[in-house]
Write a sequence for this structure.
C-alpha cells in the first residue's frame, strides 16, 4: 500500500497560526491524560532552553527545541484530525492560553502587543486583517469518553480555571498560570522573551498523511511521549458512531467505561492493552462463525475493519453485548465465582492459567459464547469435560510439536466445530501413546520451559486431595531434592524432582535436605505456614528422605497419570 505524506518541520507559531490549521481531537482518541509531572517536565525543558542558566542574554536565536511529531490527516470536513500528538498539542494550547491571560490589559508596549497578536493567531481563528474571533477556537475535541472536554473549551475561551474545576485540563492550566505568573513577577523586564522563544524556536514535526488509515499506520511506528492509541480506540469510535445514530450515545459511553474497568482488572497481565484483549478473544468467536478455519491469522484491526467494520457498525448492538458478556465471564473466572462454576471446574481453570500459551483463552471464549444459556451460564458437566479435553490436548500437542503456530491448526478447526455443531475436530489429531510416552521420558523439563510449570500444575491438581487455591497465589518450581545437595543425581531436573510451591516457602526451603524441607512443607517452623500443595504435605508425612530412586519413581508416576488422562479424554490413537 502506497502512503502519501507531507512532512515539514514547523515552529509552533507557523503551525498554529496558519489560517488553514483547524485541529480536531477525534472521538476515538483517549481522554486527556497528562498530569502535573508531564507538564512540569515540559515547562522545565522549554524554560531551560529559552533561558540558558536563567539568563535571557545567553540564548542563541538559531537554536531550536524539538517537541516531537504530530500525525495528522485532513478529514472530509477539512479539519486536521490528530492521530498522534494529542496530549502534547492539547497541553501546548493550555500553555499558550495561560501566557495570553498573563498579559492582561496593563502590558501595552510594542513587544507585548506583538506577542499577544501571535498568541491570538494560534488560539483563535482570525479574519483577513488578523483580528481574532474569540468564539472560534483553533482546536476542538470530540473524544467520546472524555466527560471533561467541555472544560478544555471553556478554559481556552474564557482563560479561567477556578478551583471548582477538577479536570486535568484545569489542573494543568492552573499549574502553567502559577509558573508564568511567578516568572512574570521575577523577570518583568524580559517576560516576553519566554513566549516568543517558545513560539518561534520550539518546533514540531507535523506528518500529514493522505488518509486516516495511512496516518494510523504511521502512528504505529512512532514512539510517542503521550498515551499510545490502540486498536480498541479505533473500534470504540466505530461503535460510538453506530450507537449515536441510534440515539444511545450516553448509554454506550457509560457501558464502555464499565467494560474498560472490568478488562483493566482481569487482563492487566495478559495484554499491553486490556481492551484489545477482549476484542481479540471475541475475534476468535466471530472468526469461527464466519467459517474461517485456516491457521493464518490477520491482525486485530484488519479483522474488524473488514466489510466496512460491519461487526462494529451493522451489528454493533450484538457485538457490544457479546463483548460485555464475554468480559463478565472472564471476570467470574478471575474472581473464582463459586455461584457460577463448580469447584471441579474452578480447579481445571486454575490449572489452565499455567498453560504453555494463551490459545486456551481463545477456544474457551468461543465455547462460552456458543454454549451459554440465557443467563450467561454453562452446563457444568459439559464445560468440565471440555476443559479437561483442551488441557490434555494442549499439553500433549505442545510437548510433541512445540510452537503456538502449529497449535492453531487443530484449535481453529475445533473452534469451527464448536460453533457449527460439528463433531470434535480434535479427533483428527489424536496422539500415539508410544510416541508421547517416549517423548515425555526424554523431554528436558527445564525451569525456563513453560510446559514444565504446566505439567506440574496439572499433576498437583490431579490429586483428589488438592484444594482450589486463590487465583493470585504465586507458585514457583521447587526441587524436592535440592540442586546444591551432593551427590547430585543425573535426574535432578526430571519432573519427578519438581513440584509447584508457594514462593515464600520455596525461598525458605530451597537449599535444605528433604527432612528439613518437610518441616516447611508441613508448617512446623515457628510462624511459618504450611504449603497448600497436598502432594508435598503427603510426601513430608510419609517419607523420611527423597532419593534419586524416588525421583525416578515419581517421574514414572507423573507420566503414567498423564497417559491415563490422555486416554480418558479420547485423545489416544487406537
Amino acid at each position: 500500500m502506497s502512503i502519501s505524506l507531507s512532512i515539514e518541520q514547523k515552529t509552533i507559531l507557523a503551525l498554529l497560526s496558519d489560517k488553514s490549521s483547524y485541529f480536531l481531537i477525534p472521538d476515538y482518541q483517549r481522554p486527556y491524560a497528562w498530569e502535573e509531572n508531564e507538564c512540569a517536565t515540559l515547562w522545565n525543558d522549554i524554560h531551560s532552553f529559552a533561558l540558558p542558566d536563567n539568563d535571557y542574554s545567553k540564548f542563541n536565536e538559531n537554536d531550536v527545541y524539538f517537541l516531537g511529531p504530530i500525525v495528522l490527516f485532513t478529514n472530509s470536513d477539512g479539519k486536521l484530525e490528530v492521530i498522534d500528538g494529542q496530549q502534547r498539542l492539547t497541553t501546548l494550547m493550555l500553555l499558550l492560553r495561560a501566557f495570553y491571560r498573563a498579559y492582561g490589559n496593563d502590558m501595552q508596549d510594542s513587544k507585548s502587543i506583538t506577542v499577544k497578536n501571535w498568541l491570538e493567531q494560534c488560539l483563535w481563528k482570525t479574519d483577513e486583517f488578523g483580528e481574532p474571533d474569540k468564539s472560534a477556537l483553533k482546536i476542538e475535541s470530540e473524544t467520546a469518553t472524555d466527560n471533561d472536554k467541555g472544560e478544555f473549551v471553556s478554559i481556552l475561551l474564557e482563560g479561567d480555571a477556578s478551583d471548582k474545576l477538577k479536570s486535568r485540563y484545569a489542573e494543568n492550566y492552573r499549574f502553567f498560570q502559577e509558573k508564568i505568573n511567578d516568572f512574570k513577577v521575577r523577570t518583568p523586564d524580559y517576560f516576553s522573551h519566554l513566549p516568543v522563544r517558545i513560539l518561534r524556536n520550539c518546533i514540531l514535526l507535523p506528518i500529514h498523511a493522505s488518509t486516516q488509515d495511512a496516518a494510523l499506520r504511521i502512528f504505529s511506528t512512532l514512539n510517542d511521549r503521550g498515551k499510545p492509541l490502540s486498536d480498541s480506540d479505533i473500534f470504540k469510535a466505530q461503535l460510538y458512531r453506530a450507537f449515536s445514530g441510534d440515539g444511545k450515545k450516553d448509554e454506550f459511553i457509560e457501558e464502555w467505561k464499565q467494560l474498560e474497568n472490568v478488562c483493566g482488572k482481569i487482563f492487566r497481565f495478559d495484554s499491553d492493552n486490556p481492551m484489545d484483549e477482549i476484542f481479540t478473544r471475541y475475534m476468535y468467536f466471530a472468526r469461527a462463525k464466519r467459517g474461517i478455519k485456516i491457521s493464518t491469522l490477520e491482525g486485530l484491526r484488519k479483522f474488524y475493519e473488514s466489510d466496512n467494520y460491519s461487526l462494529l457498525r451493522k451489528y454493533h448492538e450484538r457485538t457490544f453485548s457479546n463483548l460485555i458478556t464475554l468480559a463478565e465471564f472472564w471476570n467470574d473466572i478471575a474472581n473464582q465465582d463459586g455461584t457460577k462454576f463448580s469447584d471441579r471446574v474452578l480447579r481445571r481453570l486454575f490449572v489452565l492459567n499455567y498453560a504453555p500459551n494463551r490459545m486456551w483463552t481463545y477456544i474457551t471464549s468461543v465455547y462460552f459464547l456458543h454454549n451459554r444459556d440465557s443467563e450467561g451460564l454453562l452446563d457444568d458437566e459439559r464445560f468440565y469435560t471440555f476443559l479437561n479435553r483442551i488441557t490434555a490436548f494442549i499439553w500433549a500437542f505442545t510437548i510433541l510439536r512445540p510452537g503456538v503456530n502449529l497449535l492453531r491448526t487443530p484449535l481453529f478447526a475445533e473452534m469451527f466445530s464448536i460453533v457449527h455443531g460439528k463433531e470434535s475436530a480434535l479427533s483428527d489429531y489424536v496422539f500415539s501413546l508410544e510416541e508421547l510416552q517416549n517423548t515425555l521420558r526424554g523431554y528436558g523439563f527445564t525451569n525456563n520451559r513453560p510446559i514444565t510449570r504446566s505439567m506440574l500444575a496439572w499433576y498437583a491438581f490431579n490429586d483428589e486431595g488438592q484444594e482450589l487455591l486463590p487465583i493470585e497465589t504465586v507458585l514457583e518450581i521447587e526441587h524436592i531434592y535440592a540442586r546444591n545437595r551432593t551427590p547430585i543425581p543425573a535426574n535432578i531436573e526430571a519432573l519427578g524432582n519438581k513440584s509447584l510451591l508457594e514462593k515464600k516457602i520455596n525461598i525458605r526451603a530451597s537449599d535444605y535436605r528433604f527432612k528439613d524441607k518437610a518441616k516447611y512443607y508441613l508448617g512446623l517452623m515457628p510462624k511459618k505456614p504450611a504449603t497448600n500443595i497436598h502432594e508435598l504435605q503427603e510426601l513430608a508425612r510419609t517419607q523420611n528422605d527423597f532419593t534419586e530412586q524416588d525421583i525416578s519413581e515419581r517421574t514414572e508416576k507423573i507420566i503414567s497419570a498423564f497417559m491415563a488422562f490422555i486416554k480418558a479424554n479420547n485423545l489416544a490413537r487406537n
Notes: The radius of gyration is 31 Å. Residues 223-227 have pLDDT under 50 and may be disordered. Residues 450-568 form one domain. The longest strand covers residues 65-74.
